[in-house]
Amino acid sequence: MQRIIQWLKQAEAKLDEWGPGAWIAAMILAFVLCWPLGLAILAYMIWSGRMFCCRKRRGWHADAERARPTGNAVFDDYRTETLRRLEEEQSAFEGFLDRLRKAKDQAEFDQFMAERRNGQSGEPQSA
User: Fold this and answer.
1) pLDDT of residue 2
2) What Rg, from alpha-carbon coordinates, does the chain have?
3) Which of 45-59, 60-74, 99-113 has the lowest mean pLDDT?
4) Same structural domain for residues 79 and 41?
5) Same structural domain for residues 39 and 77?
6) Domain assignment present for 62
7) How would residue 83 be classed by pLDDT, with cut points 50, 70 and 90?
8) Are 76 and 70 in contact (CB under 8 A)?
9) Is residue 75 located within the same domain as residue 112?
10) pLDDT tens, 58-70?
């Protein structure tokens, strides 16, 4: 019994490592092979929160890992500063992407309005 529990824990860790797609694939495979097993995996996924909040759970885990001090004050300061800088760069890059999307949308809209003013509706004319 102990070996089965150990094997299940290893399988759970491996599926978590591979991500939510692996859980879904395992569930589908279990349904194909033996539907009660598939149902059990589905129930476990819902009960454990893997079905709906994998991304949120993974983010929380990453935040918890980041907050843990290593005992080396210089490294902890360096890590904190680097993470802060990377978060600022990510925020700036996301802002750049938003401005880029907005500029592209504006250019497409301006082109549409120019074509409309010139009488070109973009629809093929019937001959």
Assistant:
1) 84
2) 26
3) 45-59
4) no
5) no
6) no
7) very high
8) yes
9) yes
10) 444 455 456 788 8
> Which DSSP state fits 91?
H
Same domain for 50 and 14: yes
Task: List the Cα angle 109/112/113 in 5-degree steps.
Answer: 90
Q: Is residue 27 part of a domain?
A: yes
pLDDT > 80? residue 122: no
If one counts the domains in the chain, the total is 2
Q: What average pLDDT does range 75-96 have in this prediction?
A: 94
User: What is the percent of the chain with per-residue pLDDT over 70, rounded to a whole number?
Assistant: 81
Q: Are residues 49 and 3 in the same domain?
A: yes
Residue with tokens 């290593």: 70
Identify the domain containing residue 17 by its residue range. 1-54
Q: Quick one: average pLDDT of 111-115?
A: 94
Domain-embedded: residue 61: no
Do 48 and 74 lie in one domain? The reply is no
Would you tell me how many other CB atoms lie within 10 Å of the CB of residue 71?
Answer: 7
